[in-house]
Specification:
Length: 341
């Protein structure tokens, strides 16, 4: 290669190297911009308020109970009377829960009932209810785990409640007991439900229902005019009933008041719902920021790959330039010797 050609080649390589360096600078500027965007996203992430679940102890309320042997009266609210006949007294609202007996139905799924009739109704019954088995055998009543009932209904737990719900005052019932609860089916129900479809059938497979007595809570309310005394802490200590159409037996009497802290479930549930909503928004925003960050990181990785490729090209150019430069130097040295020879 001649001197002119080598110099031309060297200039071309120099231009290419400068262009590569320029591209690297441009890419580095892009990476800096991406880095700034990522830092901005990190800033947004740090600015997010992480929701915290409510603590039950933060949602407690003081419950005032009247120490009466009549009912478990609770004072719901009290307001001082500003004027009138009872000025200076308090309008007091009270509540108490009353348990009311109620008939319920239990459905025994996948049950097997075997029944055989005799002269006096069913002479043999077997209730196979899951893993439990109960039997009535007219010929061996002492070993029967099913009791046949034809009268004295008040002796049997909940039976009168069930009969009242059915609109009946008499009838034959069969009872078995499990975990302290008595379950009943009537002879009429056995006839109609299990053994009416096929004449002579004595086995029933499927779901059979039994009746039992449960309790249902009823909340009662009452109002009264009363005087209230308070402790130094501000808590109520006694109540003296002055007038009440609902609680006449308590008028003129004074009762102490006990206090307890219980969870305010309504406020707690509201706070929990609010927490779940904020948590959903927070997780949605975090997911959005994570996706944006990942996208920027992918772009940065692509730019880094380009830089690596340009670095490889730049090293190759430098190697070639060093080679061409050596050729130029050798050529110049040869020419110089020729003219000085």
């Amino acid at each position: 290669m001649g001197l002119a050609a080598s110099q031309a080649r060297f200039l071309g390589l120099t231009a290419r190297k400068s262009n590569v360096e320029y591209q690297v600078q441009q890419i580095n500027q892009q990476r800096v911009a991406l880095s700034n965007e990522v830092m901005g996203l990190y800033g947004k992430y740090n600015d997010l308020e992480v929701p915290t679940p409510p603590v039950v102890t933060d949602y407690m309320k003081t419950v005032y109970s009247v120490d009466s042997t009549l009912e478990n009266y609770k004072i719901e609210n009290f307001t001082k009377i500003a004027s009138g006949e009872y000025e200076g007294l308090y309008d007091v609202s009270l509540t108490w829960d009353e348990e009311i007996a109620k008939a319920y139905t239990y459905s025994a799924k996948d049950s097997t009932i075997i029944a055989k009739k005799g002269e006096n109704g069913y002479s043999y019954l077997n209730f196979q209810l899951g893993l439990d088995s109960y039997t009535y055998d007219e010929s061996n009543p002492d070993k029967s785990t099913i009791t046949k009932i034809t009268g004295d209904y008040e002796k049997y737990q909940g039976l009168q409640t069930i009969m009242k719900a059915q609109g009946l005052t008499s009838g034959t019932y069969y009872m078995y007991t499990k975990n302290g609860t008595s379950y009943y089916t009537s002879e009429n129900d056995l006839d109609l439900t299990a053994f009416s479809s096929i004449e002579g059938k004595d086995t029933y497979y499927g779901t059979y229902t039994f009746d039992y007595q449960g309790a249902q809570k009823k909340t009662n309310t009452a109002t009264a005019k009363a005087t209230l005394t308070q402790e130094s802490s501000g808590r109520l200590s006694t109540i003296h009933f002055i007038q009440s159409d609902d609680l006449e037996e308590m008028v003129g009497k004074t009762y102490s008041i006990s206090t307890s802290n219980v969870e305010d479930s309504m406020l707690y549930d509201e706070a929990m719902n609010n927490y779940e909503y904020k948590k959903m928004l927070y997780e949605k925003e975090v997911e959005k920021l994570n996706k944006e960050t990942e996208k920027l990181q992918e772009e940065d990785r692509a730019l880094e790959l380009q830089i690596n490729q340009l670095d490889t090209e730049q090293n190759a150019l430098k190697t070639e330039m060093d080679s061409v430069k050596k050729v130029i130097e050798d050529t110049m040295e040869t020419v110089f010797k020729t003219f000085n020879g």
